[in-house]
């Protein structure tokens, strides 16, 4: 039981540390420059939803 608890805490500490490091070292996401959402199944890009994206 002791080993399982230690592994569980280690996993969550490593995961939390990785997310914190990634958040701190990454550039902020510019939502206006994100690619359009692909329409499910058809393979063609959606025409709406990203009206603020520059043309």
Q: What does it look like?
A:
This protein is mostly helical and about 55 residues long. Helix content is about 45%, strand content about 0%. It contains 1 helix and no strands. The longest helix has 24 residues. The mean pLDDT is about 80.
List keywords for this structure.
single chain, 55 residues, 44% helix
Largest sheet: none
Report Rg. Answer: 20 Å
Low-confidence stretches: none
The overall pLDDT, averaged over residues, is 78
So how many helices?
Answer: 1
Classify the helix fraction into a percent range.
40-55%
Shape: elongated
The H-and-E topology, N to C, reads as H
Helix/sheet category: mainly alpha
In brief, what are we looking at here?
The protein has 55 residues and is mainly α. The protein has one helix at residues 2-25. The longest helix has 24 residues, at 2-25.
Secondary-structure blueprint:
Blueprint: H1 2-25
């Amino acid at each position: 039981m002791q080993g399982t608890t230690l592994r569980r805490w280690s996993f969550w500490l490593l995961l939390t540390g990785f997310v914190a490091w990634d958040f701190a070292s990454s550039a902020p996401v510019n939502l206006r420059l994100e690619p359009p959402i692909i329409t499910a199944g058809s393979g063609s890009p959606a025409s709406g939803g990203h009206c603020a994206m520059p043309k």
